[in-house]
Amino acid sequence: MPTTTEGMRKRGSHLRRRWRHMLGWTALLLDHLKPVRVSLLVLAAAVVVFVGVDQAAELFIIALWTDPSEARYVALLASGALAGVAIWYAARNAYRLYYPRWPALQDERAAPLRDWVPRLLGALVPLLLALGYGVALIKLPHGPCGETVHCAQRSWRALGLVIECLVLLVFFITRRRLWGMVSPRYRLRSPPRSSPSAEKRVWRVRDLGTVPCVIYAVVVVLNIVATVLIALRPEALDGIGPLAILLIAEAFLCLSGSLICMIGDRRGVPLLSAMLLLSASLHGLHLNDNHKVRQYPTMSTHQHPATPPADTRPAFDDYANAWLDDRCAGRAICPVILVSSEGGGIRAAAWTALVLSRLTALVDASAPSPGEPLVARYLFAASGVSGGSLGLATYVSLLQQPAPAPGWTQEQRAQDVLGHDFLAPTLANAFFVDFTQRWLPGAWLNDRARALTRAWESAARTQGVTAFEQPFSALYRQADGTVSTALPALFFNSTTVAEGRRFVQHPFRPIGTPQREVWTAAFDGSSWLDPRVPLSEVVLNSARFTYISPAGTLETGARNPPAPRRLQLVDGGYFENSGTTTLLEVMRLLRTKATQRKQTLRFIVIHVSNDPQISDFVDNHDAAHPWPFYSALCPPAPSAKPDSVRGEATAPFDALLNTRNARGDYARVQLLHALKPNDADPAQGDMLWHFRLCPGNYPIPLGWTISSSVFTELDRQVTQEYPLAAMAKALQQQLAPGAQVSR
User: Fold this and answer.
1) For residue 723, what are the domain limits?
2) 691: which of 444, 617, 715, 741 is 20 to 30 A away, CA to CA?
């Protein structure tokens, strides 16, 4: 028994020693992670985004698969190496300081940590890019190498990132030896051959040496210069690539943040926490709000609007009457085309512009009079949300402006405009300009939303289009100030934050009055917007989606009572993403007006959706007879998730988010029920065509950048999934005056 008791006592003593040993090493590790916490936080945030955000996965697909540009791939490798070197250098210098609060950093047992943590963190950057790409491939509808091709391209581009990871790691380990081999030949001073952990420890940042101090000073200056240049011309970054912008921002953030932490940690002052508290206070008190809605072209997002001029916008009633007089005179039944376009970032914009441009070209080509613009002539109004608004604005502005060079079709011109990289300028502004503004009291700099609108304006100018930077209402005024009906009326939907209502933007004077409530539980945007508000800004207000585009503060410059109020605008898809609610109200308004004029209208509704997951609300899929109702039958999306029960903590949030889609379903069905088909003679009744975007064979992005390969997939779908020839013939027969319509 004594022997057994003694053995148990020794075993317990051994376990306690091991436990204390493990706790000691754990504390040692945690202390060694504190000086490099900025780099760790940046890398941790990158991992969360890569794994959990679908839009980030699409960036990897574009950069490493669908983008044919080798220059952008090289830029990705270069920026990845820059970020890796920056993280390594910042961590290496952080370990050279004495920190009185963390004496464990001087423990000789942890010398390997001080040697290897900087190396591994730096080499981890390209490896995380490769892993993010792998996660993105898994999320593809058909798996990593399913029905699509280009597997070889995927392999070598991902392999390049892995090779870069190894090259960085070898460089971090052998750089002293390499420098020692090169320095005698060029008579350079050889560095000490000791390991980083054996270097002399210093008490102050300036004692790190001349070279580190110069490097940190250069980084600070370059950061300021980059911020100024991006603030002045963000659109110049079109073509670099969003991932490259993120990596460059990461490099600056790690070096600058590490310098702040070294200064604060050395003196025991939580500088980083104080800066975060300052930023949160300025934000909470609205003391640095630079997200104003621009009320006129020369206004900045950090300015308060000036008093608006006299309202010269045309009246909607004048537009509708002039349109009906011009199009419906002498017709027993007058065809009216209406379009609703759902939100969905750049894919919604590209799909909308492609569908409308292709239909326009096919119908006009078969018109009785060559070159007669039938679709554009009988297109009365269009309602858009988010990316759908951008697609509609692109289509309509190209209708107004002839091609700058012969031979360009409208479809090609739309692809040229929307094929630009709108995300890179936006991200650059977010991580440099907007990031700087967060620490400054007062509003001084244009925000990332302005960078996005400038990118749209710059892309449109490549096709000679200046409508995006001009007042929205200018599209509907002739030179003498009278109303112009040459272009369809555009209605762009936004959502107010505090009220949760639609905010309907249009180019006319306020339509709703106390005697005529046009919009159901919604704001008439013209009552708030300046008559000079630019087209790009109203599109932006419809596309202010989830942090990429910040919520906009709308202030009126009117000084007459009642006192000006403020609204805050976000993406129209927060209320409902289909755009059909507003279109239904416009249709009812026009039907009432036609009844007063004793005219009979036939509505031809084209609904453009881009989400493969939405339910099909049109039952007829007969390609031989694509009217009065028609929709392509998409195959079920392979990536669709099965129904599941949510936990009590997440169920309320999921319900709030999913009601957005449900409101869209409800609005689409209401639109369908509002139409009046004639089964006996479809030519005498309303019709609806639903252009759906199916899952397809290629990943189609949701953000603000797109590649030529995605346009190829969109073209494949509109060509193979829709009987365009039959649809164009049916539409031409409906629109051509005096034409005989047969089933």
Assistant:
1) 316-424+465-557+565-636+658-735
2) 741
Residues 415, 349: Cα–Cα separation, whole Å: 10
Q: Is 480 exposed, middle or buried (0-12, 13-18, 19+ CB in 10 A)?
A: exposed
pLDDT score for 644: 65
Residues paired with 382 in a beta bridge = 339, 490
Count Cβ atoms below 10 Å from residue 5 Cβ, excluding itself.
9
| 538/394 same-domain check | yes
Task: Note whether 676 and 578 are same-domain residues.
Answer: yes
CA 328 to chain centre: 41
652 preceded by a cis bond (ω within 30 of 0):
no
- 3-state per-residue secondary structure call for 588-642: HHHHHHHHHCCCEEEEEEEEECCCCCCCCCCCCCCCCCCCCEEECCCCCCCCCCC
Q: Which residues pair with 569 in a beta bridge?
A: 496, 552
Q: What is the number of structural domains in the chain? A: 3
Which DSSP string corresponds to 659-694? Answer: HHHHHHHHHHHHHHHH----SS-GGGS-EEEEE---
Inform me whether the pLDDT recorded for 330 exceeds 80: yes
| 3-class state of residue 579 by DSSP | coil
Tokens 């249009």 sit on residue = 506
Which of the four pLDDT bands, split at 50, 70 and 90, describes residue 561?
very low
Structure tokens at 717: 């779908």
pLDDT score of 679 more than 80: no
Judged against a pLDDT cut of 50, whether residue 379 lies above it is answered with: yes
Element containing residue 243 per DSSP (H, E) = helix 242-267
Predicted confidence at residue 208, as pLDDT, reads: 85
Average pLDDT in the 277-290 region?
A: 88
Q: What does DSSP assign to residue 433?
A: I
Confidence of residue 562 (pLDDT cuts 50, 70, 90): very low
| Residue 107 CA neighbour count, 13 Å, CB half | 16
Mean pLDDT taken over the chain? 85
Prediction pTM value? 0.90
Would you say 126 and 73 are in contact if contact means Cβ atoms under 8 Å apart?
no
Structure tokens at 177: 């030896």
Structure tokens at 363: 């119908």
Tokens of 42: 């940046």
What is the rounded average pLDDT of the residues 135-139?
A: 79
Last residue of one domain, picked from the residues 269, 286, 307: 269
